[in-house]
Design brief:
Length: 600
Amino acid sequence: EAKAPGRKDGPRFTAIAPNTDDRVTVPAGYLSAVVVGWGDPVLPGAPAFDFENQTAAAQAKQFGYNCDYVTLFQLGQHRGLLWVNHEYTDENLMFRGYTDGTAATEEQIRIAMAAHGGSVVEVERVRASGQWRLVTKGSRRYNRRITVQTQMRFTGPAAGSDLLKTAADPKGTTPVGMLNNCAGGTTPWGTVLSGEENFNQYFVNGNGVPEAQKPYLTRYGVSATTGIPNGNRRFDRVEERFDLAKHPNEINRTGWIVEIDPFDPDSTPIKRTALGRLAHEGATTSLAADGRVVAYMGDDSRFEYVYKFVSRKRYIPGFDRNNRDLLDDGTLYVARFTGDSPATEIDGTGGLPADGQFDGSGEWIPLVTGDVSHVPGMTAAEVLVHTRVAADKVGATKMDRPEDVERNPVTGGVYVALTNNTNRTPAQVDEANPRPANKHGHILEIVERRNDAGATTFAWSLPLVCGDPNDPATYFAGFDKTKVSAISCPDNVAFDADGNLWISTDGSQLGANDGLFVMPVRGSERGHLKQFLSVPVGAETCGPLVSADQRSVFVAVQHPGETNGATPEAPSSHWPDGGTAQPRPSVVVAWHAKGGKIGS
Ligand code: FEO
Ligand code: CA
Ligand code: CA
Ligand code: CA
């Protein structure tokens, strides 16, 4: 039932009102339910969750903490595999009396390590509805936990390089575990790509590395002058590899895109070095016009860059032997955005320039192709391990925290969530990042040349400059601002089968809970942003995922109750169990009560 572009065909539900309720709110006519939450049994022998009696052995078999990226691989109409990232842990909400990693028990540290990573869980549809629930009986042979201690391997041009060698792995090919996996994507061959994001926060004794390494530590957000950073989880007390003074290269083994095959629970997750090392929000794939695989990626820190990888060889449907290594050989690019309005018109008020658009042209600057570096003075392995340093040298554009980047499967446009950047000064604004002290963020749209994901040049514009629509420094693609929802801090983006853009938020600065929004990107409804869902107190909205049949929308409710000063003795959220229960990060599904399409 796809409709022609230009028709008034946006979602028709009535937007929910912003709120501060400790619940998941959905529009009239919709229902929601928890699918799976922290501590739920995943592997055989997993005990029922018991907040007061946690163990690392139990956690390693249970659903992890702080669910983030969510995707569903359907096994027919009524069964599926749900993949979920577990980004990080809130020890001060998980454990009574917790102060910091130095005072923590070693068992608490091991629990936190086991609560990171990811989960594969079998799920089933409830009757004929859009509701899905955890399968709790039968073999569940695909169910899997991946943690900080899962054996992995490196592939691609930097695998085996000196920069990745450690005492425990003298060949530099067998890293252990993944850290801070935030967003992600899928591949055409049915695997997950998961991004290691803020890996810098897990290491100690950066002041003890060789002098020559210190600038690289600093460039990746690790102090080279501090021994034990405040709030450090002290994984080094359990595993020595987190001590940089003893194992300076260990940090180079995290910050990668990790590929996981959910259909093979015995498979070794792969860190794909050709996709570079940065604070990877995630990676989402599309195909170039000639069939090469393209992965779009954001580096989520202030003043960081947008990247893409294009494979050398083409994807061939069904030819696994060809496809499985496509992400090991190709070109890694970084984006430069050039505005088309005079710099004097980007004046720091957030007002539009005279041509009525924040827009311009851009190019993808190659950093490395296969094992050939394009950056003077750096080898291919150095470009891939110290990707930020390479991008600095080629004049890429410093952005307002690039989070999810994803291509619209209907229009071919590529959308970048730029979540916020309160550190940008008036002297630092440019047309692609036009607001100083940008606290609400914006969405950037890229149209690749000839609408080909393999192109090296593009046009771009900002269809959405976020905030309260009453604020003149906001823009909703020219749509009537009296009819749109307020939005702040876009983080994850997704598309439904009609090509509508779904946006989830993290850290809204508008005084209400975070939520999920939808906005058509073409036709007369372009810019008509509406809020579909809100999450409980202290939570951010992750995922999101609109199922292929458009009957279900999944969101990960991450860190409910994460508010200043909250503890297990004084929780700020009791979601989802209610009463006096402790908050539990959980994946939620919402569906239309009468079986309608999501958004209808
Ligand atoms: Fe983990 Fe970029 O959000
Ligand atoms: Ca312009
Ligand atoms: Ca975020
Ligand atoms: Ca995120």
